[in-house]
Specification:
Shape: globular
Order of helices and strands: HEHEEEHEEHHHEEEEHHHH
Number of helices: 10
Number of strands: 10
Helix content: 25-40%
Largest sheet: 6 strands, antiparallel
Strand content: 5-15%
Distance between the termini: 33 Å
């Protein structure tokens, strides 16, 4: 992933076109208080699902749509994003307000939803280098508070009891991503991924837990208050489901091990020198918030998540080859796939050494 924040920030010309006339008629009918004229720009980020900023004289909105073209089964389900954000609206988890959903292809050629635009700051750099050093730890504390709050939400109470299958999360996820990797002929095979596909099902820790999980909880998927260390919105819920909370937290904690040029990370840096908590301190704080004494098998959760992320990048590689990628950064991610697969295999080896 590019670390060029200018390439990810803001909105501009449309890279994935849409019918503005049909959209404006739909907004007039479905979004309370909507009044044009409408200006449409496409956000420079949002590689997975094309994302647009809609500006009117009275309000700004965000539209997320499923990409057009041939897609892998079950991928890019924006309707799930809309559902989970609506469900979490009354909870302590901060999410944008979902205003309207279109489930059919009739308006724009693919399903989409419209939500209110949340103003604030997005940090593309996990070191929070734009924040003065004494204030950086507070931003990590804010992230920890939100992911712990998410894992504390009872799915059934908010109408998400059927949002995923409870139990056997790792078995199902390893099977899903392994199958998606193997079936994507365009993207090809990789020896490191092949080794992980073989090892992971045999190394799953005992014990079951189920909560709502985000699936891609990173600093650059959060909007922070413009002036203080407070998360005001969690974005990009495409990979959310019911699953194991420790898998979700370990993915978030990958920022400590991930090289900054792949996904927002601190790999190769000294957190203390940056004014940040260490990985051990951050894990301990999450445990305190969630009533745990520690996280056994943390190394497995790390290896699993690196494999999962590598599988996602492998899928992006396939989309680039098929011509359905929606972002200028997709090709960079495709090129990064072999390196990420190698990191996943190295994590597997580290996990084995602790057995």
């Amino acid at each position: 992933m590019s670390t060029d924040t200018e390439a990810n920030q803001g909105a501009g010309e449309l890279r994935t076109s849409l019918d503005a006339g049909r959209l404006e008629r739909w907004l007039t009918e479905r979004v309370a208080g909507y009044s044009g004229p409408l200006q449409i720009e496409q956000f420079k980020g949002g590689q997975s699902n094309p994302t647009y900023r809609l500006t009117t004289p009275g309000r700004r909105y965000v539209l997320r749509r499923k990409p057009p073209g041939q897609l892998l089964k079950g991928a890019h389900d924006v309707l799930r994003e809309a559902r989970v954000m609506r469900a979490l609206g009354p909870t302590p988890v901060p999410v944008p307000e979902v205003l309207a959903v279109c489930e059919s292809d009739d308006v724009l050629g693919s399903p989409f939803f419209v939500m209110g635009l949340v103003e604030g700051r997005i940090f593309w750099d996990a070191s929070f280098s734009d924040v003065p050093r004494p204030g950086r730890r507070a931003y990590f504390d804010a992230m920890s508070a939100v992911i712990a709050s998410l894992h504390a939400v009872n799915p059934a109470v908010v109408g998400l009891g059927d949002y995923g299958r409870p139990g056997n999360y790792f078995e199902r996820q390893i099977s899903r991503w392994s199958r998606q990797y193997i079936e994507d002929d365009a993207a090809g095979r990789d020896p490191d991924m092949d080794a992980l596909v073989e090892w992971l099902p045999l190394a799953i820790p005992a014990g079951e837990e189920t909560s709502i999980i985000h699936g891609d909880f990173r600093c650059d998927n959060l909007i922070f208050h413009p002036e203080r260390a407070e998360v005001v919105a969690v974005l990009d819920w495409e990979l959310s489901t019911l699953g194991h909370p420790l898998a979700d937290f370990a993915y978030h904690a990958l920022m400590y091990r991930m090289p900054p040029d792949i996904v927002a990370g601190l790999g190769g840096s000294d957190p203390g020198m940056l004014g940040l908590p260490t990985e051990a301190q951050y894990v301990a704080e999450y445990c305190r918030r969630t009533g745990r004494t520690g996280i056994a098998d943390f190394d497995f959760y790390v290896a699993f998540n690196l494999f999962r992320l590598a599988a996602i990048f492998h899928g992006i590689k396939g989309r680039v080859i098929r011509g359905t990628a929606a972002s200028a950064h997709a090709r960079e991610r495709a090129l990064a796939f072999p390196r990420l697969a190698r990191l996943a295999r190295e994590a597997m080896a580290a996990c084995k050494s602790h057995v």
